[in-house]
Amino acid sequence: MPRTIVSPDRARAAALAAALVLGSSAATAAELKPETVAAWNAYVQATEQRIDRELGAVAGFLVIDFQPARQSAADRRALAAGDLVLASMRTRDAAGRGIDVPSGTIEHWRGAVFVPGVSVDLVMEALRSGATLEGQQDVIEARVLERRGDSMRTWLKLRRKSIVTVTYATEHAVTLQRFAPGRAASRSVSTRIAELEQAGTSAERAKPEGRDSGFLWRLNSYWRYEERSDGVVVEVESLTLSRDVPLLVSPIVSPIVNRVARESLRRTLTGLRDRLLALRPPAG
């Protein structure tokens, strides 16, 4: 496939245009509309139904297991080499049609990383204790609000950086689930996302939910953990809901939005791997 080469001048022009668009968006409040929420809920429901089918399948457990054979083999080679696997996804409805999201944009990505020298038991204990919340690059502060068996509520202060930097106070409902020996899953569903003004100052305050810059309205993540003889494969599917991109500037802004979602997932997986490696028991 021929490669498109973008000149430095064109790249700078695109970045400047995106900065102007995103900057003006940040200054202008967006409204989370009921029809946008309804489309998000439909997308989440269809995604979770597919995930539940895969988790309960006789053959296969990881997302990689359910990809086309060539893609699955390439993903496994990348993991064996110590690389991260990152790819965009798209959920369709029962009739195979795309799910339209009026006045909104859903970013759906999957990622995987191999963590050597750990077990699923260690991973699950780290999740229960909240230890995996530490060291994440996008997380400024974190704490566990409540624990009940295999579920808990967490509070995170997130900072997303691109051309525009935005800080959020968020709450999440987290559930953990064990399957066959060496297999487990978890999911984190945002229950509150408040964009913060003047974050980190004495004047910090939350904007009304759903009436903010619109860069992050919802955030769900679905994790799978499978133990191998020498470590654990960690997989995640990340779903985010944000404001829609104006059609006129979509060719410029959409690739940047995609890149932000991809790089955020990369940082999350890298930070989690590093944290789990630090929790490994001493050798010998």
What's the arrangement of secondary structure elements?
Elements: H1 8-27, E1 30-31, H2 34-55, H3 69-80, E2 85-88, E3 105-116, H4 120-129, E4 139-148, E5 151-161, E6 165-178, E7 183-197, E8 205-206, E9 211-212, E10 218-228, E11 231-242, H5 250-278
Antiparallel strand pairs: 1-9, 2-3, 3-11, 4-5, 5-6, 6-7, 7-8, 7-10, 10-11
CATH superfamily: START domain
For the largest beta-sheet, the strand count, sense and barrel status come to:
9 strands, antiparallel
* Order of helix and strand elements from N to C terminus: HEHHEEHEEEEEEEEH
Low-confidence region ranges: 1-8, 10-17
- What is the helix tally? 5
Radius of gyration: 19 Å
Structural class: alpha+beta
What is the total tally of β strands?
Answer: 11
How far apart lie the N and C ends?
Answer: 50 Å
Query: Please, what is the average pLDDT?
Result: 87
The percent range for helix content is 25-40%
Tell me what portion of residues adopts beta-strand conformation: 25-35%
CATH third-level topology: Alpha-D-Glucose-1,6-Bisphosphate, Chain A, domain 4
The coarse overall form would be: globular
CATH architecture: 2-Layer Sandwich
The CATH class is Alpha Beta
How many separate structural domains?
1
